[in-house]
Amino acid sequence: MGIQMTGIDHSTAGIDIRTVFSFTRKSTAVTYEKLRLIWGIEGCVLLSTCNRMELWVSTTEEFQGDLYEILCEIRGVDPSGYRQYFSFRREREAVHHLFRLAGGLESRILGEDQIVTQVKDALSFARENYAADHVLETLFRQAVTAAKKVKTGVTLSPSDQSAVHIAIQTLREQGYAFAGKTCMVIGNGIMGKLAATQLRRQGADVTVTVRQYHSGKVEIPEHCRRIDYGRRMELFGQCDYVVSATVSPNYTLTRELVEANLTRPVVLIDLAVPRDIDPQVRELDGVQLFDIDCFREEARSEEQREAIRQAEACFAEQMEEFFTWYECVDVIPRIQEIKQKVAVDLELRLSRKLRALPLTEQEREQLRRDIETASVKTVNKMLFGLRDGTSRRTFREALECMEHIYNEEFGEAGK
User: Is 57 helix (H, G, I), strand (E, B) or coil?
Assistant: First the structure.
């Protein structure tokens, strides 16, 4: 049994490299189908966001596969060209990374809000596709729980920090103004809504593109206008700023579309991975293009470094809780079997006395159930007390001793 991960992020790979290994929900589902067929992989979770892609697996001890090569095969790319961008982690190093990731310590923007939801959603989607096993379920749930504790107890960064917030802040520092400007946001997902809301707060006149689906009414941020996605270029020529933040595999703005509808200087902000806006638009006069890699948080302050230390202390406590469970997860079926045998043993020893009691059959059956429940709880308390109060080796020796006792006991009873 083992835990390992591989991935790339904004610190090791630029947007064009990350795009090669970005996954949509559809391609993630297909990937899960392929990963489930690989011998030795017990469970998997794939996380793909604008800033990173990570593949997490739990494996048998015999698994010798190369996750990087597996990913390249699934994506249909030559593995010789990208390995230097990937990181690889196993066991405690991998677990530590996931806790830091969920808590926002690995994010481009320290403590950003979106990542914990993205980690939680990645687990949910893996579960929907029957990909996550009990090891990754427990690991990801505990990482999310730890991240939420850090979020409520430690101030890593000012509130309302997001990629959109940093983008607008960076542009303002460079002399760009938004008050009274005409802005269009292409995309009405989480990032698109954040962009529209932030631009409205800056005093911009904001229109959001929407696609009408059969599922019903599409909601947009308050005080924003809407326009059908197919009519976006009708508005484009009137815009001072256009932000694109979709999950589309295709460009929302091609060079040809922009060139044909360019009537005034415009600032284009691409917050998507893969890119939403054709990078060739940079060649057009009057166009300034910023992608997500143009926006980075400033150097961390001493207050933030202290907050990171506090977060790490919280993670250390939660990680030990996980490893206490993880290092004994293989013996849980053995513990269950011992508890069942203890319950049966106790019932056999008390059955004659139970029959002699002046009880109705219903009362006698209830008493049997109560005794069985009490015996199971007692053994549970004893075994897990041993686990928490002794070394791993001593606990396993005690477990083997109990197994031997009850195997002999039930062997003699069966003769």
Answer: strand
Closest alpha carbon to 245 in 203, 284, 302, 206:
206
Closest to 19 in 3D by CA, of 324, 393, 272, 287: 272
Check residue 413 and give its pLDDT: 45
Residue from 10, 5, 1 nearest 106 by CA: 10
Strands 287-291 and 266-270: what pairing? parallel
- DSSP track, 258-301: HHHH--S-EEEEE--SS-SB-GGGGGSTTEEEEEGGG--PPPPP
Residue 41, φ and ψ in degrees, nearest 5? -90, 115
Q: How far apart are CA 269 and CA 185, in angstroms?
A: 9
The CATH number fitting domain 163-294, selected from 3.40.630.30, 3.40.47.10, 3.30.413.10, 3.40.50.720: 3.40.50.720
> What residues contact 199, with CB distance under 8 A and at least 6 apart?
168, 178, 183, 185, 206, 241, 243
Q: N- to C-terminal Cα distance for the chain?
A: 37
Q: Report residues of the chain scoring pLDDT below 50.
A: 214, 412-415
Residues paired with residue 186 on neighbouring β-strands, in sequence order: 244
For 190, the token pair is 């989480």
Residues assigned a catalytic role: 50
Q: Are strands 52-59 and 205-210 parallel, antiparallel or unpaired?
A: unpaired
Angle formed at CA 123 by CA 122 and CA 125, multiple of 5 degrees: 65
> Are 101 and 122 a contacting pair, CB within 8 Å?
no
Give the DSSP per-residue string, 79-119: GGGTGGG-EEEEHHHHHHHHHHHHTTTTSSSTT-SHHHHHH
Which CATH code, of 3.40.50.300, 3.40.50.720, 3.40.1280.10, 3.30.460.30, is assigned to 2-157+302-326? 3.30.460.30
Comparing C-alpha atoms, which of 273, 278, 294 is closest to residue 168? 294
**Which of 69, 107, 78, 138 minimizes the C-alpha distance to 311?**
107
Strand partners, 242: 184, 268
Cβ(322)–Cβ(95) under 8 Å? yes
